[in-house]
């Protein structure tokens, strides 16, 4: 056979057979292989055709293997969702979108992926299952793997921001909603999935609302994709209506009665601190049948203060913290019951995402930390606010799962009745620059026409565009610039991303990375209430009299040096001795590593540690993201910022005793 025969056109029947085989391929391969076949029809090449046939056969074989690997399924009789599995499976087969409603503890989170397998899903592609929090993604994947009797990472995998356990045989992938958003950047049609489960949709986070809008548009183009949305009963009909009246399946929870008790201090008494009221509520519960206590607090700081307050006075109890940033090993402790009564101090992560065994009592501070943007001051701030009535009811529902429960609310009934019914969706209270940037990079419709469940405020949209223009991410016609395209590929706030882009040509990327990532996590410097002076003395070594930003660089360099020199256990002891949080430093380091890789992916060079950036170079880079965060001292020695905002230097700042003419603040 001569070499020229390599390009002899194939018989039409060969192409027709390959076209038929394509229908049995994995979804993720179908379009890619279809394009190759189309090109070969125009320009036949026998060698390339054989390669294509091999690729098609491999994809078909993988699909057949997935079909054979589907595990045996059984459902715990104790979970209410098990009684509804046939109805849910039929709805999935007959509808493209299904909404499943039920309270936390009904079993919907762990059983829905199994019901999807029973309905024939997970063969053409993955069953993707999103969780709003990392801690929930880990817990759900571990539980699901256990129920399917498979090691985590085989049939069931998970992925969060910093960790993943995935494998080629995965049928189910549990992930945070942020991971799915990132995948859209590389796979707009989400071809790796044949089914998506969006869990806890009632939380109405920015990620969830964007995903629901995006998927509504995608479903008309991907008729094979199934979408299951889970929600508490809150707002369920509204979400269903957003998807053209998708069927709603209600799953009732098995609950015992929960007694609600309110607390309000008498007018003639000196008010007790939050931690004193928690202690008093624990005392009150000691007269009740034994059971674990779940305490809802607004944030990590309050959890640490409560832990310090309780651990010496309640030595007979096990005091456990719970929040999203907690390391995986410590998170798992809440699922292991020992001999002692437990008091679990939690943020609202335990409100809907997790079911903790053994909880019989809830103490509700009535507070939560909410991010809120002001279009007047143009500032996004994390404020402590009273929770809505719906959130308070969710918290009360955490007890009464295994026996009659009691919820003590550390506020009055009158206070409860005056609270708003629901928490505002995040899209109505946040700066929209990041959303607009991602939508522009994906070439989606204008944000004003995007199908959000709740349309964002026009003032917030204007402010988002204004900030992106200030950062040079869009032009006057609101088109994405080269800078904007790079910013969209960095998994960080556009302000911080702009600093990194400016830092690279100035030779200040290494220091700017340390600063930017420090600003996205909690400060590792701890200042216990009873040891403030000792902590300040230890931290003084990091202070730079010219700039708090340089103080962060000094802290980063010190911890990196100690990391290289010490074992993990010795570094932990050093951090404790010097009032530094080892856990927060690890999170800082993980965030730094992730962003460093992203920066390298878009071609940014970090430079050498042996040639540190000069003061001017570093602060010029930071200024690119903080143009509206500068202030000047007026004749009254007060600082005046953009839009006539008055500013003061924080007393804990290294510049607290100085009065420079100009300030720049993050």
Summarize the structure.
The protein is 42% helix and 15% strand. It has 666 residues and is an alpha/beta fold.
Provide a descriptive summary of the structure in words.
- It is a single chain.
- With 666 residues, this protein is an alpha/beta fold.
- The chain folds into five domains: 3-68, no CATH class; 80-251, 3-Layer(aba) Sandwich (Rossmann fold); 263-427, P-loop containing nucleotide triphosphate hydrolases (Rossmann fold, 3-Layer(aba) Sandwich); 490-624, no CATH class; 629-666, no CATH class.
- Helix content is 42%, strand content 15%.
- The protein is built from 25 helices and 20 strands.
- An eight-stranded mixed β-sheet has the order 4-3-5-2-6-7-1-8, sandwiched between helices.
- The chain starts with 11 loop residues before the first helix and ends with a strand.
- 39% of the residues are buried.
- The model is unreliable at 1-12 (pLDDT under 50).
């Amino acid at each position: 056979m001569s070499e020229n025969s390599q390009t002899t056109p194939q018989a039409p029947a060969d192409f027709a057979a390959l076209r038929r085989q394509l229908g049995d391929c994995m979804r993720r391969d179908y379009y890619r292989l279809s394009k190759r076949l189309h090109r070969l029809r125009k320009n036949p090449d026998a060698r390339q055709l054989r390669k294509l046939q091999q690729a098609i056969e491999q994809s078909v074989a993988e699909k057949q293997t997935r079909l054979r690997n589907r595990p045996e399924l059984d459902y715990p009789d104790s979970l209410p969702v098990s009684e509804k599995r046939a109805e849910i499976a039929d709805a999935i087969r007959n509808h493209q979108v299904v909404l499943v409603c039920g309270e936390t503890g009904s079993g919907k989170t762990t059983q829905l992926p199994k019901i999807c397998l029973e309905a024939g899903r997970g063969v053409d592609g993955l069953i993707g299952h999103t969780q709003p929090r990392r801690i929930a993604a880990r817990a759900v994947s571990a539980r699901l793997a256990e129920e399917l009797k498979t090691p985590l990472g085989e049939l069931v995998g998970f992925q969060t921001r910093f960790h993943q356990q995935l494998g080629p045989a995965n049928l189910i992938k549990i992930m945070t909603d942020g991971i799915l958003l990132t995948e859209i950047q590389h796979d707009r049609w989400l071809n790796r999935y044949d089914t998506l489960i969006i869990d806890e949709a009632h939380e109405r986070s920015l990620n969830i609302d964007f995903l629901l809008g995006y998927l509504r548009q995608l479903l008309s183009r991907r008729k094979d994709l199934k979408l299951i949305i889970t929600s508490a009963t809150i707002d369920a009909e509204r979400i269903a209506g957003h998807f053209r009246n998708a069927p709603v399946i209600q799953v009732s929870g098995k609950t015992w009665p929960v007694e609600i008790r309110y607390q309000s201090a008498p007018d003639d008494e000196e008010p007790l601190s939050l931690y004193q009221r928690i202690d008093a509520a624990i005392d009150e519960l000691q007269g009740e049948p034994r059971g674990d206590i779940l305490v809802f607090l607004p944030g990590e700081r309050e959890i640490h203060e409560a832990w310090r307050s309780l651990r010496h006075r309640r030595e007979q109890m096990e005091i456990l913290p719970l929040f999203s940033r907690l390391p995986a090993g410590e998170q798992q402790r809440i699922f292991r019951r020992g001999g002692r009564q437990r008091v679990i101090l939690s943020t609202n992560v335990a409100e809907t995402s997790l079911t903790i065994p053994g909880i019989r009592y809830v103490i509700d501070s009535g507070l939560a930390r909410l991010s809120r943007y002001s279009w007047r001051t143009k500032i996004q701030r994390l404020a402590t606010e009273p929770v809505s009535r719906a959130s308070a009811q969710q918290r009360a529902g955490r007890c009464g799962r295994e026996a009659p429960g009691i919820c003590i609310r550390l506020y009055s009934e009158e206070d409860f009745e005056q609270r708003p019914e629901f928490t505002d969706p995040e899209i109505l209270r946040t700066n929209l620059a990041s959303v607009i940037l991602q939508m522009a990079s994906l070439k989606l419709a204008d944000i004003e026409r995007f199908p959000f469940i709740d349309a964002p405020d026009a003032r917030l949209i204007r402010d988002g565009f204004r900030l992106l223009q200030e950062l040079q991410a869009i032009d006057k016609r609101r088109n994405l610039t080269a800078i904007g395209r790079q910013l969209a590929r960095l998994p960080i706030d556009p302000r911080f991303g702009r600093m990194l882009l400016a830092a690279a040509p100035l030779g200040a990327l290494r220091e700017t990375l340390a600063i930017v990532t420090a600003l996205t996590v909690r400060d590792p410097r701890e200042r216990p209430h009873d040891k403030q002076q000792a902590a300040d003395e230890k931290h003084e070594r990091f202070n730079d009299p010219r700039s708090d930003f340089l103080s962060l660089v000094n802290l980063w360099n010190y911890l990196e040096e100690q990391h290289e020199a010490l074992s993990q256990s010795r570094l932990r002891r050093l951090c404790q001795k010097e009032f530094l949080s080892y856990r927060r430093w690890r999170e800082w380091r993980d965030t730094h590593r992730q962003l460093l890789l992203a920066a390298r992916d878009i071609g940014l060079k970090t430079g050498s540690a042996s040639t540190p950036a000069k003061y001017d170079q570093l602060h010029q880079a930071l200024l690119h993201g903080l143009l509206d965060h500068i202030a000047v001292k007026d004749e009254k020695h007060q600082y005046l910022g953009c839009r006539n905002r008055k500013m003061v230097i924080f007393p804990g700042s290294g510049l607290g005793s100085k009065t420079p003419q100009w300030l720049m603040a993050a």
